[in-house]
Amino acid sequence: MNFLKTKDGLILKRWNSYIHNRTFRYFLLGFVGLLLVSCFGALLSIHLNQLYDVAAMSYHVQPTPSGQGSAQKDSSGASSSRGASSVLPRAGSASGSGRTSSAQKQGPVSSGKPPEQELPAALPAYQSMYPNLFVKPAAKKAAPDGKVVYLTFDDGPSNLTMPLLNVLDRYHVKATFFVVGKTGKKDLAAMKAIVARGNAIGVHSYTHKMNQIYVSPAAFLQDFAKMHDLIQKTTGVDTHIYRFAGGSVNSFNKRTAKAILAEMNRRGYTYFDWNVSSDDALAHSTAASIYSKVIREVHQHPHSVVLMHNTNTKKATLSEVPHIIETLLKEGYRFETLGDMVDNTPYIFRLPN
């Protein structure tokens, strides 16, 4: 007993010293707080699991007109494990009495609604622009026999368009004109004459402002639609062909080229770059350099799309068109126009990765 008294007294004495120790009190309070937090977390977890079970059951079991649940299918097409079979039967029901009803033998009762499916990703807004700006893609013709040249002229109409048409008529040659948005009286008359004289016409650009039209697919579509509408109202031609301002690969469309091409292909339009350039857009070009460049490069291809320009300043180009035609006719070439039935694959630039 003396030992117990002594021991109990020692324990009480030590406990009193601990109670009056500030560090011990903080430790004890922290331990009690941690215990309370752990208990609260456990209770919260149990409550959330119950909510999840209720939500899952309400998601997979939909009410039918007859008041029964119907098992829904998951995204893989298999019946969900949380379907109607997971609902406890009501007291007095067929299933509760141990008997199998005819409805259970035949499987779950259908609600008549399609199974829930994932909504498709939102389409880019520009795909809904200009809903009438679509054409049915044409079947491509086989590559032409013999040596063929497609003369193309960009950036018209201009005051040199009518003289150029006169040259083409003189040799019974037809060309393809990719035009821009000029609305002067003489320009519109020249645009009409291009078509009236049997030449092909296509969209180039309304503004030709490459720092604007290549900002986005929407900006390109806006420019394209405006030019397409001008051509159709002026000439009556619903053209299916176009040429990018600056070509399909240029310093302005590096970020947007693939998206623009994908959208234009989706709409059914056909574009053409070139495999022969006259370089008449260069400041140092001359009549002689234009002629020699075209003839030299045409000789390198069985079929050539030749790039030239028809602006007010391209007098050197106009002066060399007769010489180019005469030379190539003598060498057995023939001239044709571009259209959406012409396979553009040999005449388009390869997009960089």
Annotate the secondary structure layout.
Layout (H helix, E strand, L loop, with lengths): L1 H18 L2 H39 E3 L5 E3 L30 H5 L41 E9 L4 H10 L5 E5 L4 H12 L3 E6 L4 H4 L3 H19 L5 E2 L14 H10 L3 E2 L4 E2 L9 H12 L4 E7 L5 H16 L3 E2 L18
Parallel strand pairs: 3-4, 3-9, 3-10, 4-5, 6-7, 8-9
Antiparallel strand pairs: 1-2
Helix pairs in contact: 7-8, 9-10
Shape type = elongated
CATH architecture of the largest domain: Alpha-Beta Barrel
Strand content: 5-15%
- Which class of the largest domain in CATH terms? Alpha Beta
User: CATH topology of the largest domain, anyone?
Assistant: TIM Barrel
**End-to-end distance:** 94 Å
Tally the helices.
Answer: 10
> What fraction, in percent, of the residue positions are helical?
40-55%
Counting DSSP E segments of at least 2 residues, the number of strands comes to: 10
Output the helix-strand order.
HHEEHEHEHEHHEHEEHEHE
Overall mean pLDDT stands at: 81
Most strands sheet: 6 strands, parallel
Structural class: alpha/beta
- Give the radius of gyration: 40 Å
Low-confidence sequence ranges: 1-7, 54-111
Per CATH, the superfamily of the largest domain is: Glycoside hydrolase/deacetylase
The figure for the number of domains is 2
Would you write up a description of this structure?
The longest helix has 39 residues, at 22-60. The protein is elongated. The protein contains 10 helices and 10 strands. Helix 9 packs parallel to helix 10 (315-330). The model is unreliable at 1-7 and 54-111 (pLDDT under 50). The chain folds into 2 domains: 2-57; 146-347, Alpha-Beta Barrel (TIM Barrel). 24% of the residues are buried. Strands 3, 4, 5, 8, 9 and 10 form a 6-stranded parallel beta sheet that branches. The protein has a two-stranded antiparallel ribbon with strand order 1-2. A two-stranded parallel ribbon has the order 6-7. Helix content is 41%, strand content 12%. The protein has 353 residues and is α/β, with parallel strands linked by helices.
